[in-house]
Amino acid sequence: MNNENLFAALRAAFPDDLDATAIDAADSATGANLKRHSWRDMDEATARIANLLTSMNLPAGSRVAVQTEKSVEALMLYLGVLRAGYVYLPLNTAYQAAEIEYFIGNAEPAVVVCAPKSLPWVQPIADVAKVAKVFTLDENGQGTLTEAAATQSTVHTVATRKADDLAAILYTSGTTGRSKGAMLSHRNLLSNAQTLLDYWGWSSKDVLIHALPIFHVHGLFVASHCALLAGARMIWFAKFDPTAVIKRLPEATVFMGVPTLYVRLLANASPQLTREACANMRLFVAGSAPLLIETFNEFHERTGHTILERYGMSETCMLTSNPYRAAEGERRGGTVGFPLPGVSVRVADDKGGTCAVDEIGGIEVRGPNVFGGYWRMPEKNKEEFTADGWFKTGDVGKIDARGYVTIVGRSKDLIISGGYNVYPAEIEGYINEMPGVAESAVVGLPHPDFGEGVIAVVVAKAGTMLDGDAIVAALKGKIANFKVPKRVFIAADLPRNAMGKVQKNLLRQEHAKLFES
Ligand code: MLC
Ligand code: AMP
User: Fold this and answer.
1) Which ligand is nearest to the CA of 309?
2) What is the pLDDT of residue 271?
């Protein structure tokens, strides 16, 4: 039987010369090389981790939950989990104890890997959830995981998996405030990576600047899979710093970023971002949040490059992309391009029909990229798939006569800040629990750096005084920092329509200029 494990395809794409460089780990602050990792190093490191996991006799389908800083070793851990045939569950490093408790309780992983400094609070959570083993891994690739893997063999036969077997679970917040685990199969991930490899013209000559976090689709799947499947070298930044990244552009060919990274490349490092610095580059990709047309235009003026904007989701990997090759059309700013080959996208009206050209409706998707459903939430699958099997993205948009898709808004109450999703319902839940709070509304406002900035408007219970800064301070440490409102306003009441629904649009209008400076 054919091995349909994603790792088998990635391993088959390693170059013949295993001593060639696979990854150059760069210093985030200076851009200088810190450590070279060959393809052989990658083969051996992933084999060691896979052997370690295999030696633990974990049940089939076991989840390995990981909350660690970005490092090459953390990428090896992801690949090692795939290689062993288990299910990878990445967690944002910003998540705090209450959030991690939910994910571990919900996913019931067999193994948890955390930062050494988090062990004192992760271990008790893991014990309650009957996690078999907690390992540590720090930002330098050291920890009990590395120690245990070091004694393992560097030879490992890739575990055989079927295309529909689970490869990863990505948690994405729910509209009701509780996160849902999107179940992604080996087929979902591999088919999407193969499509992008071809559509974006990857080859082994490419050099990718990898500066995104590796706990979301963009950095973990889109960026890493494309480079690995192409047998291309990566320049690996644990953190994004515009000056350091620009220093490495002359030897790179591809860069991927959320819009905030482009805003920062343009703003913070202005003098160095030149046509000459980008002369070797062939592709700049943006996605995960709307790219402002101003950023698209300014980047073109400064570098001569037209950013390729694409559209994706945790549940669906990449759905659409602007064309790479001129023969297929121009890259149009403000649009997310065409449905990718093999992916079907339609715009649905609210009566169950399909919208006409340029008519606005709900974006729906079908294809080998679309996930199998939410982990242990069959009721959510019913809600979010149509009867004929299309996934409702929650994004609102239109398709023009040429087939370009434009996203015009969201039907889901979601804020995207610097490429991270914030669900107002979740934050409102935390604020409403605080003493003296009667109710609250969380909205996103235009933000020059993050695209959208989170704020809250809070109403006090009768006879109570509230302080906005104290609410911000109380939320810090309780929930991930990017979810904490940048400002909290205290108001006498919330604007409501005749149905009693809070009119968030009015709050957005009232505070629209808050972040303008
Ligand atoms: C950090 N902060 C944020 C934030 N990131 N606040 C709001 N939104 C964010 N995205 C907080 C910090 O904790 C800090 O708070 C303050 O804001 C300033 O931080 P900073 O130093 O400016 O942040 P930095 O560490 O530089 O991080 C910014 C960033 C990062 C843009 C580099 O957010 C990032 O890497 N974003 C990429 C996210 C991503 O990869 N998304 C892909 C999702 S996949 P304080 O209180 O300490 O001052 C997906 C599907 C698809 O959506 O289509 O791809
Ligand atoms: P996530 O659940 O984190 O994967 O976020 C997916 C959401 O990000 C999508 O449903 C969109 O709302 C948004 N998104 C991704 N790419 C783009 C883009 N290019 N333009 C606008 N929104 C985007």
Assistant:
1) 2
2) 82
Which residues touch 84 (CB under 8 Å, ≥6 apart)?
49, 50, 51, 53, 54, 156, 159
- Calpha distance 291→19 (Å, rounded): 39
Q: What is the pLDDT of residues 287-334, one digit of tens each?
A: 999 999 999 999 999 999 999 999 999 999 999 999 999 999 999 999
Picking from 450, 473, 311, the residue whose alpha carbon sits closest to that of residue 394 is 311
Percent helix / strand / coil, the chain, rounded to 5:
30, 25, 40
Distance 407 CA to ligand 2 centre (A): 9
- Residue 270: what pLDDT? 67
CA of 253 to the centre of ligand 1 (A): 24
- Ligand 1 pocket, mutate which of 288, 365, 452, 483 (most atoms under 8 A from CB): 288
Give me the torsion for CA of 55, 79, 170, 94, rounded to 10°: 100
Contact at 8 Å (CB) between 278 and 249? yes
Spans of the chain, pLDDT less than 50:
none
Per-residue model confidence (pLDDT) at position 177: 63
- Asked whether 236 and 210 are in contact (CB, 8 A), the reply is yes
In sequence order, the 6+-apart residues with CB closer than 8 A to the CB of 193 are 6, 221, 222, 225, 226, 229
Residue from 212, 284, 374, 395 to probe ligand 2 pocket by mutation (most atoms less than 8 Å from CB): 395
Give the pLDDT score at 499. 92
Pocket of ligand 2 (CB under 6 A): 172, 217, 287-290, 309, 311-314, 336, 393-395, 407, 410, 416, 421
For residue 419, report the distance from its CA to the centre of ligand 1, in Å. Answer: 7
Q: Smallest Cα–Cα separation from 295: which of 333, 240, 243?
A: 333
Ligand nearest to C-alpha 315: 2
59: CB partners within 8 A, 6+ apart? 110
Closest CA to 13 of 234, 231, 233: 231
Of the candidates 189, 198, 196, 178, the residue with the CA atom closest to the CA atom of residue 79: 189
Q: Which two tokens stand for residue 269?
A: 């490092």
Q: Which residues contact 398 (CB under 8 A, 6 or more apart)?
A: 347, 355, 358, 359, 360, 361, 405, 406, 408
Instruction: Please name which ligand lies nearest the alpha carbon of 445.
Output: 1
pLDDT at position 220? 98
**Among the listed residues 390, 391, 408, the one whose alpha carbon sits nearest the alpha carbon of residue 399:** 408
- Distance from CA of residue 256 to its chain's centroid? 12
Looking up tokens 């390693």 gives 14
Ligand 1 contact via 451 beta carbon (within 6 Å):
no
Round to whole Å and give the CA distance between 396 and 224. Answer: 29
Q: Which two tokens stand for residue 172?
A: 């994405």
172, 291, 450, 469: residue to mutate for ligand 1 pocket, most atoms within 8 A of CB: 450
